[in-house]
Amino acid sequence: MVRNSDFLSGLLFIALGLAFGIGGTAYRFGTASNMGAGFLPVVLAVALGLLGVAILIKAWARGTVVVNFGAIRPFAIIIGTIVLFALLLRPLGFAATAFITVFAATFAGDHVPLLQRVLPAAILTVLATVTFVNLLGLPIPVWPGFLG
Amino acid sequence: MELIDHLILGFSVAATWQNLLYCFAGVLMGTIIGVLPGLGPVTTVALLLPITFSLEPTSSLIMLAGIYYGAQYGGSTTAILVNLPGESSSVVTAIDGYKMARMGRAGPALGIAAIGSFIAGTFATFVIAGFAPILGSVALKFGAVEYFSLIVFGLVASIILAQGSVLKALAMVVLGLLLGLVGTDVTSGVDRYTLGFSELADGIGFVALSMALFGIAEVVANLQKRDDPTGFVSEIKSVLPTRKDMADSAPAIARGTVLGSLLGLLPGGGALLASFASYTLERRVASHPRTFGEGDIRGVAGPEAANNAGAQTSFIPMITLGLPANPVMAMMIGAMMIQGITPGPQVMNTQPQLVWGLIASMWIGNLMLIVLNLPLIRLWVALLKVRYVYLFPAIILFCCIGAYSVHNSSFEVLVMAALAVAGFLFLKLNCEPAPLILGFILGPMMEENLRRALLISRGDFSVFVTRPISLSFLLAALALLVLIAFPTVMKMRKEAMTE
Question: I need a surface site. Which of B121, B228, B305, B368 has the fewest CB within 10 A?
């Protein structure tokens, strides 16, 4: 199995080209003088797919360089942290969410003592609350709704 | 003199207490964030972008511009002191700058970088003031046909500077254009690719996209390397260059300034090309070129001046044509649109106070940079020692808050998470995000102009080659493509990138 970065990007672009292309057929294509909503999307999607094919062919000729995706843990934790922020902000308010976000994010890095996770989280929470809510007036409650 | 009138108008806008304050805040914050190891100008601007949303349009653009030069200078500081160029444009500075730092001459290296940048910035401000109105009035005559061809040219030009495969960069441009089309089609009112989410009717959020691609994906990649990017930090004694340093650097600064001002005009060019070109030029004209790479001050002075001049003149296509020359300019345009201003040649006439205020504030910003940096350099050195363990959770939090604050919606944060997954994939597959961002910004403009051009020509595609201005843009784009595909150019490009 050829697994180099060009090969995989070729596949990715073909897949995206197909997805955009098939999706684009749902909109009116129209004519050149009276373009529908689907005209440019379909044209671009075809171009993307063709570029993907070209990248794939070039990569096939070149042989194997294995793509190293690296450790999956930091990646999963960071993405999870962002989702957590989105889900917690409304119910918990800004302060608690900021604290949990920073605290959770530290687990994506090297192992450090608990205090080195809690303390930066606390400091950043205070700084961010003052900056964004008090100074810049971000319209979001600082404290959880069920306390007020 | 029209030029003088314009500058007077500009300074009257830029020198109000309020705008001076925002300019100062931008330069200060840009430098602080830009100095932090691993954060380049693009990331810095992406991170700080949401802070400017609550301001009125002129102040917000002045602040963003300040953030940009601050971040550029901060990046040079990091390159010189710890050999960690945050962005490709400071790679060159790191070559001789870091050597100077190891020789105990970090101070003069930083000093000359600041002085060179200021001189270049002053010159570039005048270039913009003189050149922008001319280009702007030419651009006003552009119809949809010319605009479409110009956009094609700009997109092709952006590929040259993408690292790695040309085909992949092209694919990223096309993908960016497609992503730019997500949302309600203005002409027909049809929702495209919204997957049923009403929140996507306005399109994919620009802030969410740029933070995902330039902020979060970067953090994940750094964490995977598992090495703390902080390291040896040089001590600083005096930042003042000696008289000999100044004499050595003066011609290099002059050449770098002119070279940078010219190259900055090219779409896709800007700061990176300028600093490489200046370094090559200095090495060629020097009488003792062997000292280059061994801590030669000219190797810092020339590229730093060129890089700053280029960064500044890259505002010209943005101001006069509404076309971004690099991802930072794409963010400026994104910010303008969020403020309700449609970028394009008409802005110079409808909003002169905005354009000229911005131009004048560039010079003021450069002055602030030098006043700020020479005394505060010890503070920056302290910031350089911040460990990544403490830094990255803060970046993640800022990105979340930034994405949320655009529409006060958590949906935007989730979009950012999804785009960050894509950004991570692109990073691992060596697909550069910069062409995608430019495509994303230009997608809707391209569609609108294509539509109008073909509506007027009744579907006849030949208008693009029968109108002379349009034809020359297309020929230039074609020439660039041929040039890139040509093996010797490819080799030069590769050398410049790996140097």
Answer: B228
Chosen from A53, A57, A85 to mutate, greatest number of chain B CBs within 10 A: A85
For chain A, state the CA radius of gyration.
24
Q: pTM for the full model?
A: 0.83
Q: Decide if B389 and A106 are in contact by the 8 Å CB cutoff.
A: yes
Q: What is the mean pLDDT of chain B?
A: 84
Give pLDDT, residue A2. 42
CA–CA separation, B446 vs B144, rounded Å?
A: 9
Chain A residues closer than 8 Å to B411 by CB = 86
- List phi, psi (to 5°) of B183: 115, -175
Contact B62, B361 (CB under 8 A): yes
CA separation for the pair B437, B333 (Å, rounded): 11
Residue indicated by tokens 């479409």: B148
> Residue B222: what are its φ and ψ, rounded to 5°?
-60, -40
Predicted confidence (pLDDT) per residue in B132-154, tens digit: 888 888 887 888 898 899 889 88
Q: Are B27 and B66 in contact (CB under 8 A)?
A: yes
Between the alpha carbon of residue B255 and those of residues A41, B51, B116, the distances in Å are: 45, 36, 11
Is B397's CB within 8 Å of A101's CB? yes
Confidence of residue A122 (pLDDT cuts 50, 70, 90): very high
Torsion of CA B16, B19, B21, B22, to 10 degrees: 180
